[in-house]
C-alpha cells in the first residue's frame, strides 16, 4: 500500500484546525505506525500508546494521529531520533515539554501524525493515558469535549496555539477528575 493510501483518513494542511468525524481507520493506522516504530527503534522503545482524540472511539477529532512511544530511558529517547526520522518523522526537540522528544510526520504535505516520546516515569505519560481513558469511559465528557473542539476550531481555524490554549482548562479538569 502506498504511503498516501496508508494515511488517507488522516492529515491536515498548513496547520489549519479541522475537526472530522471519527474514522475506524484510525486505530488501524495507529497499529501499523506503532509496529513500524517498535521495529525501527528496537529496545530503545519499550511501549507505544495511542493517545489524543483519535484514540477515543466515536470522538470527532483533528485527523492527526497522536502516538506516544515510551523510550527505555532518556538517553535511548535521544538515540531513537535518527530511527524516527528514517520513518519520515521530523524532530522538534522537547517543543515546550522538558524530557519529551517531539516529532511530526507529513505525507504529501499533510501532517498525519505527532509522536510524543517520553522516558519511563515521565508524568506526561500518566496524564495522557488518564485523559484518554477517562474519555473512553465517560461518553458525556467525550461529547462535551467534542462540542468544545468544534466551537474552538470554528473560532481559531488558522491559529493552532489559540485553539490549544482554549482547550487547556477543559483538559485539566478531565485530568483532575481522572486522577482524583
Estimated radius of gyration:
16 Å
- Structure annotation, total helices: 7
Q: Structural class per helix/strand content?
A: alpha+beta
Order of helices and strands: HEHEEHHEEEHHH
Question: Based on the structure, what is the oligomeric state of the protein chains?
Answer: single chain
- Biggest sheet, open or closed, and with what strands and sense? 6 strands, mixed
Tally of DSSP β-strands = 6
The chain-level mean pLDDT equals: 92
What percent of the residues sit in helical stretches (DSSP H or I)?
A: 40-55%
**Portion in strands:** 15-25%
Low-confidence stretches: none
- Terminal CA distance reads 44 Å
Shape: globular
Detailed description of the structure:
It is a single chain. The chain has 180 residues and is an alpha+beta fold. It is built from 7 helices and 6 strands, in the order H-E-H-E-E-H-H-E-E-E-H-H-H. Strands 1, 2, 3, 4, 5 and 6 form a 6-stranded mixed β-sheet that branches. Helix 5 packs across helix 7. It is globular, with a radius of gyration of 16 Å.
Q: Strands, helices and their partners?
A:
Elements: H1 3-6, E1 12-13, H2 25-41, E2 45-51, E3 65-71, H3 74-79, H4 81-86, E4 89-91, E5 101-107, E6 110-117, H5 123-137, H6 139-155, H7 160-179
Parallel strand pairs: 3-6
Antiparallel strand pairs: 1-6, 2-3, 4-5, 5-6
Helix pairs in contact: 5-6, 5-7, 6-7
Summarize the structure.
The protein is an alpha+beta fold and 180 residues long.
Notable traits:
alpha+beta; 180 residues; 6-stranded mixed sheet; globular; 7 helices
Amino acid at each position: 500500500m502506498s504511503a498516501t493510501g496508508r494515511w488517507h483518513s488522516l492529515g491536515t494542511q498548513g496547520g489549519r484546525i479541522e475537526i472530522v468525524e471519527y474514522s475506524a481507520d484510525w486505530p488501524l493506522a495507529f497499529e501499523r505506525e506503532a509496529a513500524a516504530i517498535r521495529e525501527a527503534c528496537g529496545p530503545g522503545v519499550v511501549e507505544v500508546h495511542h493517545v489524543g482524540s483519535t484514540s477515543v472511539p466515536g470522538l470527532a477529532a483533528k485527523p492527526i494521529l497522536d502516538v506516544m512511544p515510551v523510550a527505555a530511558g532518556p538517553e535511548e529517547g535521544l538515540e531513537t531520533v535518527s530511527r524516527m526520522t528514517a520513518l519520515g518523522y521530523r524532530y522538534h526537540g522537547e517543543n515546550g515539554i522538558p524530557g519529551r522528544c517531539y516529532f511530526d510526520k507529513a505525507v504529501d504535505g499533510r501532517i498525519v501524525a505527532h509522536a510524543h516520546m517520553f522516558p519511563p516515569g515521565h508524568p506526561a505519560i500518566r496524564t495522557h493515558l488518564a485523559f484518554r481513558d477517562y474519555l473512553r469511559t465517560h461518553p458525556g465528557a467525550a461529547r462535551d469535549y467534542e462540542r468544545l473542539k468544534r466551537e474552538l476550531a470554528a473560532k481559531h481555524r488558522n491559529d493552532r496555539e489559540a485553539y490549544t490554549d482554549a482547550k487547556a482548562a477543559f483538559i485539566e479538569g478531565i485530568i483532575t477528575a481522572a486522577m482524583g
